[in-house]
Amino acid sequence: MKTIESVVIIPFITATLCILSLYSCTKGTPTNNKTTTSTVRYCDTAHCHGAATCDTISQSCLCAPSTGYEGPNCDIEIRRKFLSTYVGPERCAVTGQATDSVRITASSANILAITISGLGSRSPISAIVSGTTRGLDTFTIPHQTISLSGGGTELIYGSGGISGSNQSLTLNFYEGQSLIHNCTFEGDR
After folding, report:
1. Which element (helix H / strand E) includes 139?
2. How far apart are CA 153 and CA 159, in angstroms?
3. Most exposed: 109, 135, 144, 186, by fewest CB within 10 Å?
4. Percent of the chain with pLDDT over 70
5. For residues 58 and 92, what is the distance between their CA atoms, to the nearest angstrom?
6. Got the DSSP string for 11-65?
7. pTM of the model
8. Burial (CB count within 10 angstroms: exposed 0-12, middle 13-18, buried 19+), residue 169
9. What per-residue confidence (pLDDT) applies to 51?
10. Contact 112, 131 (CB under 8 A)
11. Could you please report the per-residue DSSP string of 163-185?
């Protein structure tokens, strides 16, 4: 006599474990002495892109931030959320305040690189998307020498990020060799 355990519960548990890749599933019957083993794995059918890894336990793609991609399948560029034009005030400790229209575009340098232009009289500034910290998507402006439209050059470095539903951009950067000449830009899309 077959019990409910042998007819319903055990096959259900075995099938569930097979799907979760925690159990090796076999097909065949003891009478023909031919069994085949096949394991059904989420990661066999997942579409994780780039250098993403597939996690069989959480059944999701795990994106490595250094690849420059995010999303359920790790196929969306992280820097895409920055690409836009932002309008707002630039405030500098030494030179005062001006209204700027700052444009962020994708750089061809690498998948995490962006270019910031329209910040006062400065030539375009290179930056690298760093990731997400406390809900703020951030980037770093590495030390670099840029040209000024009136002639001359200056050293610039700093950081920035976007936050909020209207995607506000905040830049904090330093010009020259000291922290005394710092500037901020806060603009909205």
Report:
1. strand 136-147
2. 20
3. 135
4. 72
5. 48
6. HHHHHHHHHTTSS-EEES-TTTT--EEE---HHHH----TT-EEETTTTEEE--G
7. 0.70
8. buried
9. 79
10. no
11. ETTTTEEEEEEEESSSSSSEEEE
DSSP string for 73-137:
TT-EEGGGGG-EEEEEEEEETTTEEEEEEEEEEE-SS-TTEEEEE-STTBPPEEEEEEEEETTEE
Counted residue by residue, the chain has a size of 189
Give dist(CA 79, CA 93) in Å, integer.
Answer: 29
Q: What is the pLDDT confidence band of residue 158, given thresholds at 50, 70 and 90?
A: confident
Task: Please state, in angstroms and rounded to a whole number, the distance separating the CA atoms of residues 65 and 76.
Answer: 12
How is residue 71 annotated by DSSP? T
Structure tokens at 3: 């019990």
User: Look-up: residue for tokens 């020498």?
Assistant: 145
Which amino acid is present at 104?
I
pLDDT in tens, 81-130: 899 999 999 888 777 788 899 999 999 999 999 999 998 878 899 999 98
